[in-house]
Amino acid sequence: MLDIRLIRERTEWVKGELARAGVDPAEIDRLVATDAARRKLQARLDEMRARRTRESKELGRLGPEAREGRRAEMRALGDEIAAGERELTALEEKFRDEMLALRNLPRADVPTGSSEADNQIVRGEGEPRQFDFAPKPHWELGENLGIIDFERGVKLAGTRFYVLMGLGARLERALISFMLDLKTNEQGYLEIAPPLMVNTATATSTGHLPKNADTMYRDIEEDFWFIPTAELPLTSMYRDEVLEAERLPVYLTAYTPCFRREKMSAGRDVRGIKRGHQFDKVEMVKLVRPETSDAELDQLVENACEVCRRLEIPFRVVRLCTADLSFASAATFDIEMWAPGIGEWLEVSSCSNCTDFQMRRANLRYRPAKGAKAEFLHALNGSGLGLPRTLIAVLENYQQADGSIVIPDVLRPYMSGVEVIKAA
Questions:
Q1: I need a surface site. Which of 149, 233, 392, 419 has the fewest CB within 10 A?
Q2: Which positions are annotated as active-site residues?
Q3: pLDDT confidence of 265, banded at 50, 70, 90?
């Protein structure tokens, strides 16, 4: 949520900056008009309530006839106040809805763009492997090795589901354990095992509601939303709290299954495991002082890149333009791994600085010094990394001519001595 004072005081600047991200300036005009109307009505109600209080005190000093006349006036005033209160409630709800619908401001140095084609490749590491055979896509490798079963996934749940079997399931678990160990042992994150369902307040605090309600799964009888990412519970863990400065920065990580409706990708990537309604992910969240958040974003990107580096898989870092930023993000870098079997760069992490946008919605603040006024934190998030795309990259980069898969060195301690996955 943006600061309404900023919108009031620098309306044209806000309109210009949000227009870079595709927001119609008319949205800000409507919000400003709603804000002005509710404030004007609030002031009028305050005046009427004050008048009612004054005149109530004067009743005892009036004669019988004057007192009866004044009571009639006060009844009419009471009716007017009640009507105004109903109108104000409706305006407050409209104002809240309009504020919740307004996306975050992009950072000044985020490139302006009209589509993902305007994203900028910042750097790359590693050279794509040169094969002396035609590399296979992961779905062929997985089926031939008996480690991915697509037919049974569809039978159990439907399209865009699959079953990992045997060493395929073990390899996924090894990736998760390796990532969590790296985050907690070397990168300073506290591991959390959060709920996989959250309430509406939690999902609203991170900006996923109401914006992304149509891509989220919900329990229809309870106020539960299945998490599309662990960003939701991690970012909102300290909602409505004030953290003391000595507790900062807060670094949190979690492995969770994630659940998303793939409505926006209908007809895309129908083969393989690139897109699914359920997938695993290791998430990173940072809660930091505002003045450090840009530097923290750089470090967050490095935390994600280190996973790619240790897996010895080529990757690149892409800076997203304004058109490709998510709703809550002010600046984002994607990390993409090379997948030779399908010939694509796969996004395995999206690292974002959400500034104070989520923190205002979550009412999560910190106290800069003892006795100082509480201020809003900045929140950052990123995958560390996302699966199954990382699994795709491992299978396709480490495949051999005979269809076997060599286990990356860094994962072997997690594979109980297995060094190669071979056909039975």
A1: 419
A2: 260, 275, 347, 350, 389
A3: low
